[in-house]
Amino acid sequence: MTDEEDARMLPRKRRVTGRRGPGRLVGPVIVASLLFGAVGCADEGEGSGRAKEIQDRSVAPTELCGGKAVSAEAGEALKVITGTTRFEGWSDYPTVAHGAQELRKRLTFAVVGDGDVCRFFPLGDMPDSHFRVTWELVEGALTGEPDPKFTELAMGERALTARDAAFLQFACRSEGIADSPSVLHIQIGVENWAFPKRFRADPKILENAHATVAHSFSLAMAKELGCENDGGLAARPSLDPA
Which pLDDT does position 139 carry in this prediction? Predict the structure, then answer.
């Protein structure tokens, strides 16, 4: 899927005049006004119904992507990033288990590759913002200087975080993955697409929040794949600089 197609898929919120004539037209104008008022009330009711429907199918962050991907701590981090505690997932990319299954399929013919884990978007006043969580098989531990916008943290093989994204790489040894090399190097990415420029939270707070979410998804993936020692990831994120 291209970025242009992604942009078209982005969910967005959806948002008569009369001229008073001479005195002899006041009656018809009043009737028309009442009719317009009735239509307006109907539109408001319809809008309220749609809003309730969206609210009813939304979920708490800990229920996203299969219900095992977002820890309570990561849920709080998503609230810091978005300002909301209600989210909706995209059915095409539902769970961490789905992402792990696709990763296993990839290993049947290659040791590198990438794919989606899941996508979701927050409810509220940020209609253009959505999150994409991805996996990537890489050939080894990453080296070299990262992009200046990222801060490197002491987690896994390498963890990089910014105010709108975070990436965490860990090593995985698992007897449950057939035809795989002795050690897999897996990177989980959490990207906040169309991040609103008007959002002016402290950059450091946003960096820590995105890193916390990336850690939660990485730990869930490590557990799903059966990685020894959870891929070397602790139960809670380390936000100390590397």
Answer: 85
Give the residue ranges of DSSP H helices in the chain. Answer: 3-9, 26-57, 72-82, 96-106, 203-225
**What pTM was computed for the model?**
0.75
CA distance 183 to 235: 21
28/225 Cα distance (integer angstroms): 72
* C-beta separation of 90 from 57 below 8 A: no
- DSSP assigned state of 85: S
- 127: tokens are 């209609």
- 165-172 vs 184-193, strand pairing mode: antiparallel
Q: What is residue 97's predicted lDDT score, i.e. its pLDDT? A: 93
CB 26 within 8 A of CB 136: no
Question: Which ranges of the chain have pLDDT less than 50?
Answer: 1-43, 47
Q: 192, 120 in Cβ contact below 8 A?
A: no
Rounded-to-integer distance, Cα 189 and Cα 149, Å: 15
152 forms beta bridges with 160
